[in-house]
Amino acid sequence: MKMGTNNANSLYQHSKFVIRFKYLRKYKHLLLNKSVSYNLQDKQQLKEKKKMIVMQTPLHGNLGDQAIAYAQKKFIEKHFADYTYLEINYEEVIKKTKFLKEILNEEDIIFIHGGGNMGDLYLNEEYTRRYIIKTFKNTKIITFPQTISFSSSSIGKKELEKTQKIYKNNKNLLVIARENKSFSLMKNQFGENKVILTPDIVLSLDEQRETNRQGILTCFRNDEEQVIKKDLKNELLDKLRKKYNSVTESDTVVNREISTQTRNKELNEIWGKFKNAEVVLTDRLHGMIFCAITRTPCIVFNNYNHKIESSYYDWLEDVKYIKFVNTNELKTSDDIDELMEELENLKQEDLEYNLLVDKFKPLIEYINAQDNKVK
C-alpha cells in the first residue's frame, strides 16, 4: 500500500517528536545545572595555559569507545606534551559550557570524541556534537577520526541537512574521517578544506605482549549493526565447540558504566583476553582493531554499514593475520567449513604488523600549523 504524502509527513513529524522527547527526557539532568563552580584561582591558571580539551568522551560500557578515549589521551600526551590535557565526558558537556568559555584562550583546541556515531542511528551523540560545534565557534575544533553514516530515510536526510549546515557554518572546524568512504562523503557534505583522513585513533596504539595463547575467542554483536544471520552464527559456534577444547564467547561491550578512573583496568582486561587467544572471530570494528594492536590472528565479518570493510581495506588489508569475510558470502554449511580451514591457516601466520604512525601525520601537521599561526 502506498502511503499518502500527508501520512508520510505526519509519520516523520511524529518520529521527530519521539526522538527529541527521548533526548530531552534522557538528558534533562544535563540541562538543570548548566554551570559548575570552580575556584577563581584555578580558572585563572587554566586560562593562562594552552589546552587541548577532549569533549563528549563516553561513560558507557562500549570498550571500543573507551579505547578511543584512551588512545586520544595517549596521542595528545605523546605528540603535544606542551599542552594541558582536559577531558569533558558526555554528561558534562552542557554543565561545563560556561566554565569552558571562561578558561578558553586563542591557543586552545577542542577535540570531539571519535568513533562511528556521525549519523542518524545514534542521534543523541550527533545532537551533542552539533551543540559543541555551534557553541564554541570561536575556538579551533577537531573531531577525532569518525565514520559518517546517515540513512536514506526521510529522517536521515533531514538530519544530514542539519549536520551539514552546522558544520559548514563553523570556520574553525576540522573533521577527520577514519576510512576512505567516509572521507569522500564528508568532503562532499562539508567541503574539502574541512576534512582530512587518518585511521581510527586506536590504531595509534601498540599493545603487543608475549603470552601463552590458547583457544578461540568470539566477539559478536547483538544490536542494530549486526548482519551475520543468527542460524549461521549458531552453526559456526557449534562447529567451533566441537573442534576446539576452549571456545570463549565475549564482547567489547560490558553492561556497566566506565569512568576515567576505571577505563584502563577495563581495557587491560579485554586486551588480555585478545592476547591470550589463538584466533578471534568478530563482527566489531574494534574487535578487529584490538587484534591488530595486540598481534592476534583474527577473522572479521562486516556490519550493517561500511566502517569495518572500509577500515580493513584502507589500513589492514596487508596484515596477514587478519582476514576479512563478507557476511553475504557466508550462506551454507560448506562456507562455514571453508571458514574453519581459514581459521587454522591464520594460526600459522606471521604476527608482523607495521605501526601506522605515519598515517597520523596529516593531523599532527594540521595542529602544528594552527599552533604556528597563533605564535
List the main descriptive attributes of the protein structure presented here:
single chain; alpha/beta; 7-stranded parallel beta sheet; 14 helices; 16% strand
- The fraction of residues in strands falls at 15-25%
Rough shape?
globular
Question: Could you give the count of β-strands?
Answer: 12
N/C terminus separation? 64 Å
Query: How would you spell out the order of helices and strands?
Result: HHHEHEHEEHEHEHEEHEHEHEHEHH
Structural class: alpha/beta
- Stretches with pLDDT under 50, minimum 5 residues: 1-37
Major beta sheet summary: 7 strands, parallel
- The total of helices stands at 14
Gyration radius (Cα, Å) is 22 Å
Helicity, as a percent range: 40-55%
Mean pLDDT: 88
Summarize this structure briefly:
The protein has 375 residues and is an alpha/beta fold. It has 14 helices and twelve strands. Strand 5, helix 7 (154-168) and strand 6 (173-177) form a beta-alpha-beta unit.
Characterise the protein shown here.
The protein has 14 helices and 12 strands. It has helices at residues 5-26, 28-32, 40-48, 63-79, 97-103, 123-135, 154-168, 180-190, 230-243, 263-275, 285-294, 307-316, 333-346, 361-374; strands at 51-57, 84-89, 109-112, 115-119, 140-149, 173-177, 195-197, 216-219, 247-250, 279-282, 298-301, 322-325. Strands 1, 2, 3, 4, 5, 6 and 7 form a 7-stranded parallel sheet that branches. Strands 9-8-10-11-12 form a 5-stranded parallel sheet, with helices on both faces. α11 links the parallel β10 and β11. α4 packs across α10 (263-275).
How would the blueprint of this fold be written?
Blueprint: H1 5-26, H2 28-32, H3 40-48, E1 51-57, H4 63-79, E2 84-89, H5 97-103, E3 109-112, E4 115-119, H6 123-135, E5 140-149, H7 154-168, E6 173-177, H8 180-190, E7 195-197, E8 216-219, H9 230-243, E9 247-250, H10 263-275, E10 279-282, H11 285-294, E11 298-301, H12 307-316, E12 322-325, H13 333-346, H14 361-374
Helix pairs in contact: 4-10
